[in-house]
Amino acid sequence: MRLLFAALVALAVAPLASAQPKADPPPDAAPPLDAGASVYQKVVRSTAWVHSDRGNGRTATGSGSLIDKGRRLVLTNYHVVGDVKTVTVYFPQYDGKKVIPDRTRYRNGIHGEVVELDKQADLALVRIDRVPDGVPELPLAKETPDPGTSVHSIGNPGKSGALWVYTPGKVRQVYGKKWKAKLDEKTVVSFDAQVIETDSPTNPGDSGGPLVNDKSELVGVTQGGAIDAQSISIFVDLSEVKRLMNRRSVQLLRAAADPKDEKKPEPKKEPAKAREKALTSRDDGKFFGSEALAKSAPAAEKLLKEKQTDFFVETVMTPWKGDAEKVKAMKPEEREKFFRELVEDRAKEVKLHGIYVMVCKNPSYVHVYVSHPEDFPPGFATKVKAALLDEFKQKKFDEGLQKAIDFTLDAKGLATKPEEKKEDKKEEKK
């Protein structure tokens, strides 16, 4: 009888309980972020855009992520940095709370030194000179994700025209793989590593970027250069990243960079003595008219005086080192290496801090070298070389030189304003 009474009471009370109105959220409350948006906002701050100057006016670009703030270490792919010793790194900038995707807004990058390579697993570590305010390190996950796990990647694909591009996906499988990728237009390298296969599409430029889980933890590194994997996407697995970070040579970086271990302060470096006079450009190859070369002098003086930047041009009949005929007979990649080393040696000799244009007549070759790429807009050397070649092919050597001057002045914010040009023309007429 008591049980029957209790049941009747429960039935009578239940409708009253279910009829209680639910509290409405405040009218000004922001809608909750979905998983992808939440992960993106956290991870994008640690994501990098990496530029590698391959010489001869060519720049390779990819992505990366800051994985150790104390040691200033950025993780990327080996095929992004190649065999160069230094790269330029950019981190996201913001307009209010929104990340800026426009590539043209990123002008001054951070110098980075390539300190460790794992060529077999296609990984590289770059040590940057500084970490910008508000850039956190990306934590490593405890373990590799299982098939079916949701993952998220961020990169800088060249085809999209935008930076900091988000891509969601699902893990298909994790396994050991051998594959090939292009280091540059003419060099193909082989890799062998544990990889994560996903259904999320990747493109050139995404390479080196982070693959993370729903907790915004790194589980892999985008490997966007695979030749034999157009229909799938592969990422270098977390286990390979941990193996790289556990190398003794990498561990020693911690000891060298940890302030607790620095008992003695580093000796103060004397500031580099500023060059008093601009480098004098030379036209031994007889490419330019006397007036065109003369115009480069005041531009070089202006760049040095106002921006402490060198503008240096040299033309030669034949290379000042090596036999011209032997150089002409070299394979394209061998000749490119020869001139790159030649120009780099010359830049060190004159203690260049800026841009150096070298033009050779026999064999015909143009090389544009920038000593500190982070001081110029992305792809600056490539842009200057392309302009020179366009004009040189039409035998317009003076016009090519003038374009190189104008581009350099513009990159350093010293371009002549239209109204100033009109005044100059008036003075010339007088």
Q: How does the overall form come out from the CA principal axes?
A: elongated
Question: CATH topology of the largest domain, anyone?
Answer: Diaminopimelate Epimerase, Chain A, domain 1
- Give the SSE order as H and E letters: HHEEEHEEEEEEEEEEEHHEHEHHEEHHH
Unreliable residue runs = 1-20, 258-264, 266-272
Rg value:
28 Å
Mean pLDDT: 83
Number of domains: 3
Structural class: alpha+beta
The CATH class of the largest domain is identified as Alpha Beta
What does this structure look like?
- The chain has 430 residues and is of the alpha+beta class.
- It folds into three domains: 90 residues, Thrombin, subunit H (Beta Barrel); 96 residues, Trypsin-like serine proteases (Thrombin, subunit H, Beta Barrel); 136 residues, Diaminopimelate Epimerase, Chain A, domain 1 (Roll).
- 30% of the residues lie in helices and 27% in strands.
- It contains eleven helices and 18 strands.
- A six-stranded antiparallel β-barrel has the order 1-2-3-8-7-4. Strands 9-10-11-14-13-12 form a six-stranded antiparallel beta barrel. It has a four-stranded mixed beta sheet with strand order 15-16-17-18, with helices on both faces.
- Helix 6 runs parallel beside helix 10.
- It starts with a helix and ends with a helix.
